[in-house]
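Re: the pair you flagged

First of the two:
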Amino acid sequence: MDTVIVLRAEGTVFRVPKSILAAGSSVFQSMFEFPQPAPGSEAAMAEETIDGNPVVRLHDSAKEVEAFLGAILDSSYFMPPPKAVDFHELLGILRLSHKYDVKYLFQRAIEHLETIYPIALYELDAIDKHRITGYDETEVAFDLTTILVLHEVGATWLLPYAYYNAAETCAEGLLSSGPWSQLSPDMQCTFIHLLALQLMGTERLYHALTSPSKCTTSDACDLTKFRFLATGDRRNRLDQSPLWYKSREALTASQTVRPVLCIFQCRVL
């Protein structure tokens, strides 16, 4: 008969078969191999138990542990892409699968994140953020939270696009975001630098793609363009994302976007 271990996270307890945890996690396997105190000994009397089962305290959030154990105990709970997954559960499973060395869950979590944080330009058109429920690409807090976890688990190959995506927001939104204070000083400096690079890249691309050759009031058009750039509304501004110009959507729109913008700018003034 399989023995049970009780895991306590915050105020929640989870009863889990030892054999299942040990089979998937080298950390738990090593933990269970530690010599146990002899029954009736002082150490055994001091050990916390529930219904005679030893209790292991985990210094993790109860919600993360619940998602992590659900993924281990139920094979259908956390399926590979293209199955949908909750954003917060995904990060919790990624963090704990790394912490407790559950390799197959770690790899599966990485595969999900690669669908929203691509590592190659040709993958831009394959981004499918709608499968990650609870994720809002217009809220920089989601990207900052992901960046913190990626640094923690060493998944550095996903960081470039995560930083890029977060840097698309305005400075005010970045600095007022909850996770901002959790970033190290070096990470905060990196973001400030990225914001400047993003703005410069946007201005160069916007100028190159919206300069009409026959416009008789080029100075006025330039002034209007700079006013437009200053709006900082990322929800309505595809040009704020320089990589957008590499996407299939941009190539399709290129024949109509440029003349419409140029005509609009000249008419405004």
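Second of the two:
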Amino acid sequence: MRTHTCYLPARTFPSHLFSSSSLFYFLEFSLLFIRYSLAWATICVLLFGIVVCYR
């Protein structure tokens, strides 16, 4: 009984690891995308503010 319960999670672990890793990569990619678009938005707002101030 004890060995059977220890054996079951070890068998289901790799497929679960694969699905969670793909989800993790998707979340990481979306976080990078959000970070880059926020950086670009900040740069554009700063440039626009500089142009408006010096005009």
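Residues 2-54 form the longest helix (53 residues).

-B.
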